[in-house]
Amino acid sequence: MRTSSFLGKADVVLRGFSGYNTRWALRVLARAMEGAAAVGAADPVVVTVFFGANDTSLPDWKQVHQHVPLDEYQNNLRAICAYFKGHVWRR
């Protein structure tokens, strides 16, 4: 579904950084989400978090700097989800 499908029905806030893995995203998450929720806006109904492709880069390949071990990846995703559950839109 395209964001244009929501015109006039919902505010869609996109935040994406090409090439980022969960480790790097955690470092910039708070700054990346600044201004995402307008004052007086309703709390979000849906938040989509999409990571994994860069995290799974093989550690012995050219993109070794993007690789994140599975246990760290899981912990990073939990931390990202906890951020959205408890920090971004709480007033």
Strand content: under 5%
Mean pLDDT: 80
- In DSSP terms (H or I, runs of 4 or more residues), the helix count works out at 2
Helix content: 25-40%
Description of the molecule:
There is one protein chain. The chain has 91 residues and is mainly alpha-helical. It has a domain at 46-90. The chain is 31% helix and 0% strand. It has helices spanning 22-32, 70-86. Helix 1 (22-32) runs parallel beside helix 2. The longest helix is centred in the C-terminal third of the chain and has 17 residues, at 70-86. The model has no long low-confidence stretch (mean pLDDT 80).
Layout: helices, strands, pairs:
Elements: H1 22-32, H2 70-86
